Amino acid sequence: MTLPKRRTLPVNSQRRDEHPGFLFVLEGIDGAGKTAVVELLVELLSRNYDVVRLREPTNESQWGLEIRERSPKGELTPDEELNLFHLDRQWHVENRIRPALEAGKLVLMDRYFFASGAYQSVSTGIPWKEILLRNREEIGAPEPNIIFILDVSVEVGLERALQRNGTKNEQFEQVDRLIKVREAYLAMTQEDDGMYVVVDASKTLEEVTSEVYSTIVHYAKNQK
Ligand code: ATM
């Protein structure tokens, strides 16, 4: 198995990330299968680790709740959305993510600030690099040990999302937007300093889960 090489992170992030826990993040476009994979991973990893499952947007902070309530109705401008995700994340880091890492837990996240980089760069036009930087510098968001990008074509993603939600949303605008979101995620894996692993998420749920699971276990064992 090939593990990502440890790339050099900015001095600030190395210093602030001294904690005994592990942080693994799953990202991808809609329909990539993140949520189903996270569910299975929690079950498997809980046998040997103290696992905390988290997701963003949260359904705990006032900002996460506002996103969940108003975003699907199209009530938020791209700038308002960016700002709300930022505030929700600030709350999340302070109240859930950092305490869990400091308590030595293995934290599994269904989306994190890389989603803001990918989605909000497309909606606002602000480069993803700048969005990631704001999350790192303004929030001091802990760096994940590994960011798994569950990569799938937009066609497959939309088809899966359709099976799950039962509503077809194939306007050109939607397809075009998701193509750009996927490109942003893939560009991050090449140009950002984080530890990314791209997983072919067109495979079955079991295959994808097994690949992510083995990578996590292998990584965690080697860090001890
Ligand atoms: P889920 O697909 O994980 O339920 O996330 C809900 C939406 O939130 C998803 N969008 N669609 N369509 C991605 C979006 N999102 C952002 O746009 N920015 C963020 O920072 C996060 C965490 C999620």
Q: How does this structure look, described?
A:
This protein has a single domain (22-222), classed as Rossmann fold. By secondary structure, the chain is an alpha/beta fold. Strands 2-3-1-4-5 form a five-stranded parallel sheet, with helices on both faces. The longest helix is centred in the middle third of the chain and has 25 residues, at 78-102. It is built from nine helices and five strands. 3'-azido-3'-deoxythymidine-5'-monophosphate (ATM) is lined by residues 30, 56-57, 85, 110-111, 115-116, 119-120.
Report the count of strand segments.
Answer: 5
Give the CATH level 1 class.
Alpha Beta
Say which molecules are bound, naming each kind only once. Answer: 3'-azido-3'-deoxythymidine-5'-monophosphate
- The CATH topology annotation reads as Rossmann fold
Strand content: 5-15%
Q: What is the CATH-assigned architecture? A: 3-Layer(aba) Sandwich
Helix content: 55-70%
Counting structural domains, the number is 1
Q: Report mean pLDDT, rounded to a whole number.
A: 91
Radius of gyration: 17 Å
Largest sheet descriptor: 5 strands, parallel
- Tally of separate helices: 9
- What class, by secondary structure content? alpha/beta
